[in-house]
Amino acid sequence: MKFIDKLRRRMDEVKNVLAIGLDTDIERLPEKFSKDSHGMYEFNCMIIESTKNLACAYKINSAFYESSGYDGMRTLQKTRDLIGDIPVIYDAKRGDIESTAKAYAKAAFELFDFDAITLSPYMGEDALNPFLKYEEKYSFVLCLSSNKSADNFEYHGEPPLYSEVAHLVNQKNYESGNCGLVVGATVAGRLAEISKMAPKSLILIPGIGTQGGDAYAVMHSVDHQKIIVNVSRAIIFADDPVASAMNYSKILSF
């Protein structure tokens, strides 16, 4: 089943656009969990088991697993397997020459069996093409990010770089049907504009909560059928993760 169909079916089940991000920073684990890959996995199990009826998807940030070496990567695989049939996005932000991109795509989609991935577009479309060849998978391309220094590059030029990225993604999605965008919640005011540049592309929206993005503003900016909204630390490291997940699932409901 194609990612987009799998996601739509899941959204219809939970009636929201909430993706929960497993940005599992060992240093922030609650005291009852050991500060190692075993504790990381136990924590992920707790989060997944207690929120799986609330989330339309999960997003796993590779950095927090890679930084724990071999054991961390085993935890990455075990976590992905635990999630099962719920859509899973691999937040890896890959972007390299075509031969390297082929290897990255094989790892993400064949070895780890992720449903989707985040990519960096700044080496051009040949860095994207190997991922788009996996017809049942989906690629979210960085367009306008939520970090404070995004304006170092993304707003430069006329038209601005983020606009060029959106138009490229629109072209690639027209060809392949599996290419979307990443637009930060901190720039919700530009969501409608960017959505019009790539009208058939799904938009992954990070930056809610800790980074300052407003979930209400996002839901009022663009059609919910075009977006998937990720919340990570504001849920998993909340005093009550389940209560936080329930709150965001209501805000992001339709």
UniProtKB/TrEMBL annotation:
Reactions listed under catalytic activity: orotidine 5'-phosphate + H(+) = UMP + CO2
Keywords carried by this UniProt record: Decarboxylase, Lyase, Pyrimidine biosynthesis
Top-level EC class: lyase
Residue ranges annotated for the Orotidine 5'-phosphate decarboxylase domain, each copy included: 17-248
CDD domains found in the cross-reference section: OMP_decarboxylase_like
One Pfam family in the UniProt entry: OMPdecase
Biological-process GO terms, alphabetical: 'de novo' pyrimidine nucleobase biosynthetic process; 'de novo' UMP biosynthetic process
One Gene Ontology molecular-function label: orotidine-5'-phosphate decarboxylase activity
SUPFAM superfamilies named in the record: Ribulose-phoshate binding barrel
SMART domains from the UniProt entry: OMPdecase
Pathway per the UniProt entry: Pyrimidine metabolism; UMP biosynthesis via de novo pathway; UMP from orotate: step 2/2
TM region(s), chain numbering: none
Tagged with keyword Cytoplasm: no
EC number assigned by the record: 4.1.1.23
Family: Belongs to the OMP decarboxylase family. Type 2 subfamily.
Protein's name according to its UniProt entry: Orotidine-5'-phosphate decarboxylase
Organism listed in the record: Mesoaciditoga lauensis
